[in-house]
Amino acid sequence: MMDSSAVPDLASSIKPKRNHVCIDNLSKSFNGDTLYQNFSLNIPKGHIISIFGPNGCGKSTLINMISGLMDFDAGQVLFDGKTLAQTKIGYVFQNYRDALFPWMNAWDNIAYPLKRMGMGQQKVKERVNSLIELFDIKFNLKLYPYELSGGQQQTISIMRALAPEPEVLFLDEPFSALDFEMTLFIRDKLQEANLKTEVTMLIVSHDLEDAVFLADQILLLTRRPTRIAALLDFDLKRPRKAESVSDPQFIAIKAKALEIFQKEMKA
Amino acid sequence: MRSRSIYKVLPLVGPLLLYLIWSTAVSAKWVSATLLPSPQITLSYTAHVFFTGAIWADLWSTVQRTLYAFGWASVVGVPLGVILGSSPPVYKSLEFLIDFFRSTPSSALIPLFMLIFGITDLNKIAIAAFAAVLVIVFNSAYGVMNAKKTRVMAAKTMGISQFHIFKDILLMESLPQTFIGLRTGISLALVIVIVAEMFIGSESGLGHRIIDAQQVFNIKDMYSSILITGALGYVMNLIFMLVESRVIHWGGKV
Question: In angstroms, rounded to a whole number, what is the distance separating the alpha carbons of residues A144 and A146?
Fold first, then answer.
């Protein structure tokens, strides 16, 4: 695949360090029960951050607050200094069945956000075609979501989220309803999309291997009230392949993350 | 292969059984032939009223009244239901009223409607529309309220405007339930139209024809009119199901 030059490889290993998503003193409580208190985090542009932590620590709540799906009590989230309203984002849900629009075929699902942005018909076509190429889609996009397999549906919802060329892509347990084969495929495609477009990604995962595989940084969270247990850098060179999971560097970081996680479970 | 062809003829078993029991009941004199003519006589009489055209006027007025009532009920009911459904406080405030009148047999309101509209065609249409509109409102509202939250959230993250979330997502989400309301609504409208034609001084319609036949003891005509009324209800339901499966192709699959 990487025959002609080492340039993409180089570009991927030296990611820019400019901060993109700035989370500043975020606080959130549910019925007087504090979930987050003055939570701050900076995410560099184009980075993939995996969020991992014990059950109920509010992994999904965190990305829902950042993406505006959930209100927070205090604090601020800025994207390159802009507010959420000024920023294009994409969101991939765990439950693709409930997230896709079953009255539209797969193609129209992908094109929907573009059409609603007021993009011209020709431009929409070009954009969807470039996504088809990027994701190497072989199945018929004239089919409706309920006629597709689970993995195909999740692929469509990722394409739909990426269609408007968002600055940040949020993924809430995108693999948890997929079989292993599909997980490998989608991991691969997400990595490619990230390398090509420099979209910043926040991925919530409950599977440590999935969390580590894509990540530039692994955000490990504590039990409630939720704090950052550790923010591990992981710079194994890209593109990472299925075999990368047996790379010593991969094994080492996974072991370290597990150790921190277990310490948090006991705490 | 064999079991499939058997499955194809299974739906005929019921009607054939009814025909057999009916004709046995008449020929074995379980029932007096003056109260129940044989199925052969009834069916050939039914064919006769169709060929001579005797039935068309009555059939057409019933169809027309039902469609008018249903049309008005849909035009008012669907938008109203969608508005109620998208505003939980408004729905909560009106929920009791809707449930109350939905539970009240609309036929109980016929005298009231006679006071308001007099003994007119408008009266029959109004009371049938009233019966249908409540079930349509309820189902449309319910459909919107039970829209999958994930789809609305997905649209929000795309930056879709409130108006387009309503039009593109909520409205589409409510369609399967709305169709259930419409289908129930048109059946209800037919029921009320038939009752109204019987009892609100009518000059035409299947209901009028049935009660007239009974009054003058034209027993063949009464049975054939009942059969035709039943067939009308069945065909309306069938047409609706066909339209429904075309429009809401995703129904039951997600």
Answer: 6
Sheet containing A19-30: order of strands? A33-44, A19-30, A74-79
Using CA coordinates, name the residue in chain B closest to A166. B158
pLDDT digits (tens, 9 = 90+) for A247-260: 999 999 999 999 99
Domain extent at residue B116: 56-247
Nearest CA to B155 among A164, A178, A86?
A164
Annotated domain spans of chain A:
1-15+47-70+81-87+167-267, 95-165
Residue among B158, B161, B254 minimizing CB distance to A102 = B254
To the nearest whole number, what is the mean pLDDT of chain A? 89
Could you give the ipTM of this predicted complex? 0.86
Residue B170, min C-alpha distance to chain A (Å) = 11
CATH number of the domain that residue B220 is part of: 1.10.3720.10
For the entire predicted model, the pTM comes to 0.81
Name the token pair of B47.
């064919």
Residues of chain A found within 8 Å of residue B161, distances taken between Cβ atoms: 116
CA–CA dist A35, B228 (Å, integer): 67
* Residue B207 located in a structural domain: yes
| Number of neighbouring beta carbons within 10 Å of residue A94 | 20
Domain formed by A1-15+47-70+81-87+167-267, architecture: 3-Layer(aba) Sandwich (3.40)
A33-89 pLDDT tens trace: 889 999 999 999 999 999 998 888 889 999 999 999 999 999 999 999 899 999 999
